[in-house]
Amino acid sequence: MTTVAVLVGSLRAESVNRRLAETLRDNAPEGVELVIVDGLADLPFYNEEIDNASQVPASAVALRDKVAAADRVLAVTPEYNGTMPAVLNNAIDWLSRPYGAGAIVGKPFTVIGATPTPFGGKWSHADAARSARIAGAHVLEDAIVSQTAIDVDVFGAEVQDKFAAALLALVEAEAPAAA
After folding, report:
1. 105 contacts 136 by C-beta, under 8 angstroms
2. Which of 19, 94, 114, 131 could be cross-linked to 154 through a Cys-Cys bond (beta carbons 3.0 to 4.6 Å apart)?
3. Cβ neighbours of residue 144 under 8 Å, at least 6 residues apart?
4. Are 91 and 40 in contact (CB under 8 A)?
5. Distance CA 62, CA 41 (A)
6. Which H, E and C letters describe the chain, residue by residue?
7. Are 16 and 109 in contact (CB under 8 A)?
8. pLDDT along the chain (179 residues), means of 10
9. pTM of the entire structure?
10. What is the pLDDT of residue 176?
11. CA 95, CA 89: separation in Å to the nearest integer?
């Protein structure tokens, strides 16, 4: 069984990207489990002072545990003002610590999503990929899918095939050898 931790960059319960994550989860290939990591809204903004305290926030511990237990990480996110949503950036910040040994280190990672802009979230997805790479993830650039939601049914078969192909590439990716 390959487990994929899914980080959703939108907090809206009915967002296109949450629905996309749920659709992928519900239609995952045999032998693949997608676990949508909830609770991102409960994370305090990353602060090294509280991360070094004797009691790391429970929401941060839960996030780290869920991602550490997964084999892969998939971010499904819209674009806000030309960049990734703060909630996703904050989650990656928590996952990057402790430096060099965070829960995301060495994990195959990609980002997909749909946004009602002409560029489909490319800037957000590039930012998320860069941040995850700096945090130590093994980013699969070729599996990034940025889909415009303007005049496109993101739940139509053709578009779903793009997202399913990205998921398959993530699942089949070899994790880099430990250094």
Report:
1. yes
2. 114
3. 110, 111, 112, 125, 126, 129, 166
4. yes
5. 13
6. CEEEEEEECCCCCCCHHHHHHHHHHHCCCCCEEEEECCCHHHCCCCCHHHHCCCCCCHHHHHHHHHHHHCCEEEEECCCECCECCHHHHHHHHHHCCCCCCCCCCCCEEEEEEEECCCCCCHHHHHHHHHHHHHCCCEECHHHCEEEECCCCCCCCHHHHHHHHHHHHHHHHCCCCCCC
7. no
8. 97 93 95 97 96 90 98 96 96 95 96 90 97 97 89 81 91 74
9. 0.94
10. 73
11. 10
- Looking at residue 178, its pLDDT comes to 57
Q: Which residue has the tokens 């053709």?
A: 158
Residue 3: both structure tokens together: 């487990």
Please give the pLDDT value at position 118: 85
For residue 177, what pLDDT is reported?
Answer: 64
Pick the CATH number of 2-172 from 3.30.390.50, 3.40.50.360, 3.40.50.300, 1.10.1740.10: 3.40.50.360
Tokens of 18: 């949450």
**For the chain, what are the domain ranges?**
2-172
Question: CA–CA separation, 75 vs 45, rounded Å?
Answer: 18
